[in-house]
Amino acid sequence: MPAIPSLGGLRGRGNKGTVPVRPVPVPLSAYVVDCAVYVAGERLPGRWTHSEAIKEVRKRHEGFVWIGLHEPDAQQIQGVADTFGLHELAVEDALEAHQRPKLERYDDTLFLVVKTVRYVEHESPTTANEIVETGELMVFLGRDFVITVRHGNHSGLARLRRELDEDPERLQLGPSAVVHAIADHVVDHYLDVTGRIENDIDVMEAQVFAPRSQVSAEQIYLMKREVLELRRAVMPLATPIQRLAEGYTRLVPDDVRSYFRDVADHLTTVSERVAAFDELLSTLVDATVAKISLQQNTDMRKITSWAAIITVPTMIAGIYGMNFDYLPELHWKFGYPLVITVILAICLLLYRIFRKNGWL
Question: Which of 60, 103, 164, 208 is 20–30 Å from 355 (CA)?
Fold first, then answer.
């Protein structure tokens, strides 16, 4: 029986003998974290596809669908986009990720982008290379659906969904209540992360002002970079949350709008903390640079003092090293002890003067 060539062998032939390898299609279910139908605040039992879920809701004329996706590709998300009528520009943003926090309206759909943050555990802020890790959540809000697209491994919503499943009164407010819960969940994580970063900055501040500390300006700049990454996640989100709190769209009823005002207040607190971190780290950089300059000046004074002391025996030895017959006390038997005594006396005098002035 003839041997069957492997795929690797087929790829290694010339263009005429190459068999194209088609990508294996991945089903949408591989990217769907959860798909649920909610009616009167209660989750309906059973497993649903995205098309079956929205058909059920529209057949009942009540309730909504909540679909959670994790880093889908273009082919997979297109099926969801066609079913729910998502705008192609919003879908493109959801795929590309690396978006700034924003809120956009496309016909009867809102598209919200929020940055998620996670505090990276480390032994000490003075040696850590990474303190904050960011991810992204994209939320599509419609009249009878909410779709979340998650990028990153730390921004899961499974726990939040379980909490909402146990609070049907809250889910009765509709899909905008889910959007509020997500925004509140993200901002609460901001508060937690800023609290832990504040502790790190306190540790670093104590190290900077401690005697003979080893904190470098480079490490403070690294911390400042992490705070800047947090700032990029927090600051741009203020405008979208404020717009949702002020009635930017009818998709957010008045009952939910008041909840967004509370989120906006918490976000303001976070923004103020982050701004204070930035200012404090700038102060620590200035203090570290001043401390380094002071240490360098101290070292330079010590070097200068010892150089002045060493100059005395060098000068005298240089004079007596000249090839002259008539030098003071050249042939006197006590000349050498006298010169050594004079050198030691002058050196000790200079040492005492420099010591008294604080140079040594």
Answer: 208
Backbone angles phi, psi at 130, to 5 degrees: -145, 135
The identity of residue 237, as a single letter, is L
Q: Are 179 and 66 in contact (CB under 8 A)?
A: no
The residue type found at 280 is L
Nearest to 292 by CA among 204, 219, 213, 357: 213
Cβ–Cβ < 8 Å for 188, 195: no
CB 149 within 8 A of CB 137: yes
d(CA 359, CA 304): 9
Question: How many CB atoms lie under 10 A from the CB of residue 337?
Answer: 10
* Residues whose CB falls within 8 Å of the CB of residue 186, separated by 6 or more in sequence, listed in order: 114, 115, 116, 137
Spatial CA neighbour of 31 closest among 145, 151, 176, 141: 151
Which is it for strands 64-70 and 32-39: parallel, antiparallel or unpaired?
A: antiparallel
Whether residue 53 lies inside any domain: the answer is yes
Residue 278 and residue 228 in contact, taking contact as beta carbons nearer than 8 Å: yes
Structural domains counted in the chain:
2
Residues 151 and 222 in one domain: yes
Residue 151's identity, in one-letter code, is: H
How far apart CA 269 and CA 234 sit, in angstroms, is 10
Q: Could you list the residue range(s) of the whole structural domain that residue 59 is in?
A: 8-18+22-292
pLDDT 10s digits, 236-279: 999 999 999 987 888 888 889 889 999 999 999 999 999 999 88
- Strand 109-119 vs strand 32-39: parallel, antiparallel, or unpaired? unpaired
285 and 337 together in one domain: no
133-164 pLDDT, tens digit per residue, is 889 999 999 999 999 999 887 778 889 999 99
Angle, helices 74-84/50-60, rounded to nearest 10 degrees: 10
Tell whether 231 and 124 lie within a shared domain. Answer: yes
pLDDT in tens, 168-186: 999 999 999 999 999 999 9
Tell the burial category of 146 from Cβ atoms under 10 Å away from its Cβ (0-12, 13-18, 19+). buried
Contacts of 95 (CB under 8 A, 6+ apart): 72, 73, 74, 77
Residues 231 and 308 both lie in one domain: no
Indicate the residue type of 204. M
